[in-house]
Amino acid sequence: MPADRHYTDRHPDILDDVPMKEADEPKRWLDEKRNVNKIVYAVFIISGILLAIDPLVHKHGYFEIEHWFGFYGIYGFVGCVFLVLAAKELRRLVMRREDYYDDR
Amino acid sequence: MIGEISPGLVIIVGALLIPFLPGKARNVWGVLLPILAFAQFMTLEAGSDGLIDVMGLELTTIRVDGLSRIFGIIFMIATLISAIYQFHVGGWLQHTAGMIYAGSAIGAVFAGDLITLFLFWEGTAIASVFLIWASQTQRAYSAGMRYLVMQVGSGVLLLAGTLVHYGQTGSIAFESFDIETTAGLLIFVAFGIKAAFPFLHNWLQDAYPEATVTGTVMLSAFTTKLAIYSLARGYAGTEILVPIGATMTAFPIFYAVIENDLRRVLAYSLNNQLGFMIVGVGIGTDLAISGAAAHAFCHILYKALLFMSVGAVLFRTGTAKGSELGGLYRTMPWTAVFCAIGAASISAFPLFSGFVSKSLIISAALKEGYFWTWMVLLFASAGVFHHSGIKIPFFAFFAHDSGMRPKEAPTNMLIAMAIAAFLCIAIGVYPAPLYAILPFDVTYHAYTVEHVVTQLQLLVFSALAFTVLMRTGLYPPELRSTNLDTDWFWRGLGRSVVRRLGSVSGRGWGALAANGSKACWRFIEGVYRRAGPEGILARTRPTGAMAIWMTLILTAFLLIAYL
């Protein structure tokens, strides 16, 4: 339970405590590790298909780069990896403890 | 001669009645007001109306044209959705403040002159801060103060620009301005603050996540999009907006990746979405301006939907922090579904609203040959999917199980989310009605094989990147933290400087006060000695003098504390 819960609106339905997991709760589809793996494989397969059909799509791009094989996919992948890894480095510079401003 | 009444005023006047209504009637009235405003809007004809003569200046309170129409319509829809979303909120304050805020934004959109615009502009600033303060926490109070300083500052610049403009041209008409002139620059910065330009942006990420659950939904819809409208009206085709907008699309997403508070993540992504619109305004062709307007229209819906779903989570669990949440799909399945629809829309998946609006701006950039801008927009599009499309639903509803099993969101919240979700999908599947109300007549076909496939490639490979980073453990975990942004300059550096100055001048004041009161005492004792024990004046003097000195010292402290 989060220690610093605060309610910003009052509503008759708000309970003082958030109901928590019960011991006899039935397992969900996503609770199985192999089902999560299925989703991961699905992402791999769809990515593969989208890359494979790339040469079949007739492109009218204004820029030369758009006609490169799989440009959009590769750019999206590289861009996102760069985004996350750069943001991770950014944490070294800007991250402070949560109450940084509170006691100043 | 007044003539017609602005639809914005219909809502503002109606809002003033809310405190006098009992609870249930308040909700009905809240839903009726945007509908009444819309009915009033439908009676208006294109052109200027609602002329008021004030001290020799003719104010144009209503101007209906292509640009004000699309923004006016979406503002009224957003008002309606917000009204339903806040049914459960007790008391009249938030209902009234919210409606005055919405009415002011609508009034500003229909304003035909700068004075009317200024009045409504300040109206949005002052009414909206109550939605932040209504959280009733110390953090919200301080954030609201900082927010108010920025918003009122924007208004002051707008007024200054208006006066200079009037002095030079003799006109107060709200038409396009030249950024090269003093007046043009002042007004540009005024709009820029509200549009959250880089380095002027931080009030948004600072204040929005501190507002109430319902207040943030309203805030996300109006202030910044009013600024987009104003820029589209006043500065279409101003070249500098293209790099400004491109910067806005890119830099907030780095913060969005590492931010823990999911409402703050959404605020960063709001900033990124504004960047797309600013680029559109900067390019300034018919297609680009229409794209900015269309994107604002869709954006208000999906951003409100995302804020509503995270708000529902906050409402039920008491936290919106990624590090505390997870696994909520089990007991809040509808909220999870609506959140996913908002996420798909902001990511511009085919068949969702973002796809049919963002592409107008990106094609305009392509057509006008802005290669590097286009590359940045594409990177930002992939990044949006990454931090808004995946991160928000993933950390709230899936990820590691928090063990929390909260109830599903209240019915009124679900209805509001359902309306927004329906519109997100409807516009995505059938964009013709949206394209019909664009400010310019543009023919654009979003659903070509090329466009669908390339967009899917971009998005699915972004998802692939997320999957790979998650599986390899490279993805940064959600950590309870504060990330420094430009607000550090006044909340960190600025405050410590003021405090140091304060302690020095405080010591100075203390010494001065001590010496001063000693001198006073000597003087008073002298008076006392001379006036004798019966001197009434002599007896009251000491307390009076001390009170005056205390007041002075306290005022000095107060001034320093507020600086």
Q: Can you walk me through this structure?
A:
The complex is a heterodimer of chains A (104) and B (563). Chain A is built from 2 helices and 1 strand, in the order H-H-E. With 104 residues, chain A is mainly α. Chain A has a domain at 29-94. Chain B has 563 residues and is mainly alpha-helical. Among the domains of chain B are: 236-471, no CATH class; 488-562. Chain B is built from 21 helices and 3 strands. Chain B is globular, with a radius of gyration of 26 Å. The mean pLDDT of chain B is 89. Classes of the chains: A mainly alpha (104), B mainly alpha (563). Strand 1 of chain A pairs antiparallel with strand 3 (482-483) of chain B.
Write the layout of secondary structure elements.
The complex is a heterodimer of chains A (104) and B (563).
Chain A: H1 33-52, H2 71-94, E1 95-96
Chain B: H1 7-17, H2 23-43, E1 47-54, E2 57-64, H3 66-85, H4 93-109, H5 114-133, H6 138-169, H7 182-194, H8 202-207, H9 213-221, H10 223-234, H11 241-258, H12 262-283, H13 286-317, H14 333-346, H15 353-367, H16 371-397, H17 411-429, H18 432-436, H19 449-471, E3 482-483, H20 488-531, H21 536-562
Structure at a glance:
The complex is a heterodimer of chains A (104) and B (563). With 104 residues, chain A is mainly alpha-helical.
Tags for this model:
heterodimer; A: about 100 residues; mainly alpha; 2 helices; about 40% helix; flat; disordered N terminus; B: about 575 residues; two-stranded antiparallel sheet; 21 helices; about 70% helix; globular
Tell me how many strands of chain B there are: 3
The low-confidence parts of chain A are 1-13
Q: Compute the separation of the termini of chain B in Å.
A: 45 Å
Low-confidence stretches of chain B: none
Question: So what's the overall shape of chain A?
Answer: flat
H/E element sequence of chain A:
HHE
User: Rounded to an integer, what's the Rg of chain A over CA atoms?
Assistant: 23 Å
Q: Supply the number of helical segments of chain A.
A: 2
Major β-sheet strand ordering of chain B: 1-2
Tell me the β content of chain B: under 5%
One letter per element, helices H and strands E, the order of chain B comes to HHEEHHHHHHHHHHHHHHHHHEHH
